[in-house]
Structures are given as structure tokens and as C-alpha cells.
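re: ur question from yesterday

yeah so i grabbed the chain u mentioned. its 96 aa long if i counted rite. heres the sequnce exactly as i have it in my notes:
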Amino acid sequence: MPKKSTGPRRKTRKKFRKKARERGKLNINLALQEFKVGEKVAIDVEPSFHKGMPFKRFIGKVGKVIGKRGRCYEVEVGEGSKRKVIVVHPIHLRRC
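ran it thru and got these C-alpha cells back, copy pasting raw so excuse formatting
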């Protein structure tokens, strides 16, 4: 029997897929965008850029920027009854 994979990208065949028209070079403006502390952002993963990519559970969530860590941002996201802080690169964030 084959062994089931258990990596962080398992079960993401459709989550981390781009449409045919979205393929090609990345938009540099998305990587250079800046956010202010307290701003609301949505997590929208750019699958071709792996640095600062959040875990698959947080895709589509809306959170609040609470700080900056290097080039990435600390985003507070609700997960059930808890609040979690994740570190995300700006290319994976959109303004709400």
C-alpha cells in the first residue's frame, strides 16, 4: 500500500492552483504593497510565490494587520473561538 503524504501542502490541489489566464509573471506591485497597522486584509494566496505563504487553513480569511516582521506582516485571524497571529508576505494579502 502506498503511504499517505502528510506535508503542509497536502489536499491543496485546487486551493493552490492558478487559472490559465492568471499564469505568467508576477505583478511586482503586489509584492511591494504596504499596509498600515489596524488595516483589514484578506488572505489570498499567490501559489507561485512560496515565501511567506500562510497555511492552507487560513486561505480566504479576513484579519487585521497588527505589525510588521521583516518584509512580512503579522496578521491576526479568527480561528474558531481563538485569535491567531500568522506571518504573511504582502503578495498573499489583499485589502478589504
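noticed a couple things. The longest strand covers residues 62-69. also The chain has one domain: 26-95.
anyway ttyl
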